Amino acid sequence: MDVNIEDSWKAQLTTEFDKPYFKTLVDFVKTEYKTQTCFPKGSEIFAAFDHCSYDDVKVVIIGQDPYHGVGQAHGLCFSVNEGIAMPPSLINIFKEIETDLNVAFPPNGNLERWAKQGVLLLNATLTVRAHQAGSHQGKGWEKFTDAVIQLISNNKKDVVFLLWGGFAKKKGAKIDTQKHLVLNSGHPSPLSANRGFWFGNKHFSKTNEYLQESNRSPIKW
Description:
By secondary structure, the chain is an alpha/beta fold.
């Protein structure tokens, strides 16, 4: 089965694509996209991989579901296209960057510029029905994205994993902390951030310090 994904990832994940669960997942997704309104659009399902090759991965941010509102999701966790209002979690991410690094608030919420610098913006579930949060959970995506995280943990070194909130922490439980930097904090959603679990985590400066110590260029957040 041929999956339309960036070549370096295709080489790494071919065996995963051939597993029975993934074929069942593809059948489910194809049926959903034919019969329901789903996000992101089909060509952007693997956008996180297409914008950040396997060889370039320096940082991994783990999200949960794609945004389920019209025009929001475009395949990168927490990111929205230009012209789309920034969701509250993304606003809080930029607020933390502003105080942590003294970087001005950006004009839009498109995080492709991060991806192109080596930040894999990975949702646990890569598709969703319109206006139905969690509607494609438990269909196989989680197994696939677990395999991606394990692949990076096992085969690369000195990667920074940013785990925001309980869900991401569970998702990253098997990351080898001897080889990689794992930073945990609360989720940037208002519910968590306003209770003191997000602001002040300094994840962005800590990430850059670690990258520079590993002789790699920092991320321009």
